[in-house]
Amino acid sequence: MSAARVALLSMAGLVLLAACAAPATPGEAEIAQRIRSTRDATFKEAEDGVTVNRTEAIGALGSAIIANEECYLLTKLMRGLGVVWLEHQARI
């Protein structure tokens, strides 16, 4: 399994850990808690009367070596969290 795939799956796992009560390791629990607390503290539901449901405090940067499918999963995961700042190097 490629390092990019492991990193992507790890990120997905950390986000899921933020919603679970039993994290795998203390380090993963800390990362998951930071993601959750940052999102909760900065999440905007509406702006100027328009529903936006987003957070601008978290961003995601993909790799040039991830496949289209992995990029799709990263995008879906981040959009599910309300992240709007997404970038990847697939166009290079």
What does this protein structure show overall?
By secondary structure, the chain is an alpha+beta fold. The chain has one domain. 52% of the residues lie in helices and 23% in strands. The protein has a three-stranded mixed β-sheet with strand order 1-2-3. β1 (44-47) and β2 (50-61) form a beta hairpin. The protein starts with a helix and ends in a 5-residue tail after the last strand.
Layout of SSEs?
Blueprint: H1 3-19, H2 26-42, E1 44-47, E2 50-61, H3 68-81, E3 83-87
Helix pairs in contact: 1-2, 1-3
Rounded mean pLDDT is 77
Distance between the termini: 22 Å
Protein structure class: alpha+beta
Number of strands: 3
Number of domains: 1
Strand order of the largest sheet: 1-2-3
3D shape: flat
User: In what range is the share of β-strand residues?
Assistant: 15-25%
Fraction of residues in helix: 40-55%
DSSP helical segment count: 3
Low-confidence stretches: none
Global Rg: 14 Å
The biggest beta sheet reads: 3 strands, mixed
Task: Provide the succession of SSEs.
Answer: HHEEHE
Provide tags for this entry.
92 residues, alpha+beta, single chain
Gist?
This protein is α+β, with helices and mostly antiparallel strands and 92 residues long.
